Amino acid sequence: MSKDKHIITMLVENEPGVTARVSGLFASRNYNIETICGAPTANPEMSRITITTKSSPERFEQIMKQVRRLINVIKVRDMTGEEAVKREMAMVCVNAKPKDRPEVLRIIDTFRGKIVDTGQTHYIFEITGGQDKIDALLQLLKPYGIKKVARSGVLALYREPE
Prior knowledge:
By secondary structure, the protein is an alpha+beta fold. The protein is 27% helix and 41% strand. The chain folds into two domains: 4-78, Alpha-Beta Plaits, CATH 3.30.70; 85-158, ACT-like. Chain A, domain 2 (Alpha-Beta Plaits). The mean pLDDT is 93.
Protein backbone atom coordinates (compact mmCIF):
# COMPACT_ATOMS: atom_id res chain seq x y z
CA MET A 1 0.00 0.00 0.00
CA SER A 2 1.44 3.36 -1.08
CA LYS A 3 1.76 6.02 1.58
CA ASP A 4 1.81 9.66 0.54
CA LYS A 5 2.70 12.63 2.71
CA HIS A 6 -0.31 14.75 3.68
CA ILE A 7 -0.52 18.09 5.48
CA ILE A 8 -3.63 18.92 7.51
CA THR A 9 -4.29 22.29 9.09
CA MET A 10 -7.13 22.96 11.45
CA LEU A 11 -8.54 25.91 13.31
CA VAL A 12 -9.50 24.88 16.82
CA GLU A 13 -10.80 26.56 19.94
CA ASN A 14 -7.85 27.78 21.99
CA GLU A 15 -8.67 25.74 25.10
CA PRO A 16 -6.78 23.28 27.30
CA GLY A 17 -6.82 19.69 26.06
CA VAL A 18 -7.61 20.36 22.38
CA THR A 19 -4.15 19.38 21.11
CA ALA A 20 -4.27 16.27 23.31
CA ARG A 21 -7.64 15.27 21.81
CA VAL A 22 -6.32 15.73 18.26
CA SER A 23 -3.12 13.78 18.89
CA GLY A 24 -5.11 11.19 20.88
CA LEU A 25 -7.35 10.59 17.86
CA PHE A 26 -4.27 9.86 15.76
CA ALA A 27 -2.80 7.55 18.39
CA SER A 28 -6.03 5.63 19.03
CA ARG A 29 -6.48 4.95 15.29
CA ASN A 30 -2.80 4.02 14.86
CA TYR A 31 -2.13 7.00 12.55
CA ASN A 32 1.41 8.35 12.78
CA ILE A 33 2.04 12.06 13.24
CA GLU A 34 5.32 12.98 11.56
CA THR A 35 5.18 16.63 12.64
CA ILE A 36 2.74 18.68 14.67
CA CYS A 37 2.81 22.41 15.21
CA GLY A 38 0.27 24.51 17.06
CA ALA A 39 -0.06 28.12 18.17
CA PRO A 40 -2.71 30.80 18.70
CA THR A 41 -3.90 32.72 15.63
CA ALA A 42 -4.55 36.46 15.24
CA ASN A 43 -7.78 35.71 17.11
CA PRO A 44 -6.65 34.66 20.61
CA GLU A 45 -9.74 32.44 21.00
CA MET A 46 -8.51 30.16 18.17
CA SER A 47 -5.35 28.17 17.51
CA ARG A 48 -4.05 26.61 14.32
CA ILE A 49 -2.70 23.05 14.47
CA THR A 50 -0.78 21.75 11.45
CA ILE A 51 -0.03 18.03 11.19
CA THR A 52 2.07 16.11 8.68
CA THR A 53 1.27 12.42 8.27
CA LYS A 54 1.82 9.63 5.75
CA SER A 55 -1.08 7.46 4.68
CA SER A 56 -2.89 5.95 1.74
CA PRO A 57 -5.53 8.17 0.09
CA GLU A 58 -8.33 6.05 1.57
CA ARG A 59 -6.93 6.19 5.08
CA PHE A 60 -6.29 9.94 4.74
CA GLU A 61 -9.97 10.44 3.87
CA GLN A 62 -10.87 8.63 7.11
CA ILE A 63 -8.45 10.81 9.10
CA MET A 64 -10.06 13.98 7.71
CA LYS A 65 -13.59 12.75 8.54
CA GLN A 66 -12.61 11.81 12.10
CA VAL A 67 -10.78 15.07 12.77
CA ARG A 68 -13.79 17.08 11.54
CA ARG A 69 -15.97 15.31 14.14
CA LEU A 70 -13.80 16.30 17.09
CA ILE A 71 -15.23 18.77 19.57
CA ASN A 72 -13.43 22.13 19.46
CA VAL A 73 -12.37 21.71 15.80
CA ILE A 74 -13.74 24.66 13.86
CA LYS A 75 -12.30 24.07 10.37
CA VAL A 76 -10.08 21.43 8.75
CA ARG A 77 -8.23 21.71 5.43
CA ASP A 78 -5.99 19.47 3.38
CA MET A 79 -2.88 21.57 2.65
CA THR A 80 -1.07 18.93 0.63
CA GLY A 81 -1.45 20.58 -2.78
CA GLU A 82 0.37 23.37 -4.57
CA GLU A 83 -2.17 26.05 -3.64
CA ALA A 84 -0.73 26.29 -0.13
CA VAL A 85 2.38 28.12 1.06
CA LYS A 86 4.38 25.68 3.21
CA ARG A 87 7.42 26.49 5.31
CA GLU A 88 9.46 24.97 8.09
CA MET A 89 12.04 26.49 10.40
CA ALA A 90 15.11 24.74 11.73
CA MET A 91 17.81 25.67 14.20
CA VAL A 92 21.06 23.81 13.63
CA CYS A 93 24.30 23.58 15.60
CA VAL A 94 27.15 22.62 13.29
CA ASN A 95 30.85 22.08 13.97
CA ALA A 96 32.96 24.91 12.60
CA LYS A 97 36.66 24.31 13.14
CA PRO A 98 38.81 27.33 12.29
CA LYS A 99 39.92 25.90 8.94
CA ASP A 100 36.29 25.07 7.96
CA ARG A 101 34.60 28.28 9.13
CA PRO A 102 34.66 30.16 5.80
CA GLU A 103 33.18 27.20 3.89
CA VAL A 104 30.54 26.48 6.55
CA LEU A 105 29.53 30.16 6.51
CA ARG A 106 29.38 30.15 2.70
CA ILE A 107 27.04 27.12 2.70
CA ILE A 108 24.77 28.66 5.35
CA ASP A 109 24.72 31.99 3.48
CA THR A 110 23.90 30.27 0.16
CA PHE A 111 20.74 28.90 1.77
CA ARG A 112 19.96 32.29 3.38
CA GLY A 113 20.50 30.95 6.87
CA LYS A 114 21.08 33.37 9.73
CA ILE A 115 23.77 32.83 12.35
CA VAL A 116 22.24 33.23 15.84
CA ASP A 117 25.16 32.02 18.00
CA THR A 118 28.88 31.61 17.45
CA GLY A 119 31.44 29.69 19.47
CA GLN A 120 35.08 28.86 18.88
CA THR A 121 34.18 25.50 17.32
CA HIS A 122 30.52 25.82 16.30
CA TYR A 123 27.80 27.92 14.74
CA ILE A 124 24.11 27.85 15.58
CA PHE A 125 21.97 29.13 12.75
CA GLU A 126 18.34 29.29 11.74
CA ILE A 127 16.86 28.60 8.35
CA THR A 128 13.35 28.74 6.95
CA GLY A 129 12.00 27.22 3.77
CA GLY A 130 10.52 24.08 2.35
CA GLN A 131 11.44 20.70 3.78
CA ASP A 132 13.55 19.91 0.70
CA LYS A 133 15.63 23.07 1.16
CA ILE A 134 16.34 22.29 4.81
CA ASP A 135 17.14 18.65 4.00
CA ALA A 136 19.56 19.76 1.24
CA LEU A 137 21.37 22.16 3.59
CA LEU A 138 21.71 19.50 6.28
CA GLN A 139 23.13 17.09 3.71
CA LEU A 140 25.80 19.63 2.67
CA LEU A 141 26.77 20.31 6.29
CA LYS A 142 26.85 16.65 7.35
CA PRO A 143 30.60 16.22 6.55
CA TYR A 144 31.44 19.03 9.01
CA GLY A 145 29.47 17.41 11.81
CA ILE A 146 25.97 18.41 12.79
CA LYS A 147 25.74 18.50 16.57
CA LYS A 148 22.04 19.30 17.08
CA VAL A 149 18.95 19.99 14.99
CA ALA A 150 15.55 21.32 16.09
CA ARG A 151 12.86 21.53 13.39
CA SER A 152 9.49 23.21 13.75
CA GLY A 153 7.48 20.94 11.52
CA VAL A 154 5.54 22.25 8.54
CA LEU A 155 3.41 25.38 8.77
CA ALA A 156 0.97 26.04 5.93
CA LEU A 157 -1.50 28.69 4.79
CA TYR A 158 -3.63 28.73 1.66
CA ARG A 159 -2.77 31.44 -0.83
CA GLU A 160 -5.25 34.28 -0.89
CA PRO A 161 -7.18 34.66 -4.16
CA GLU A 162 -5.93 37.54 -6.33
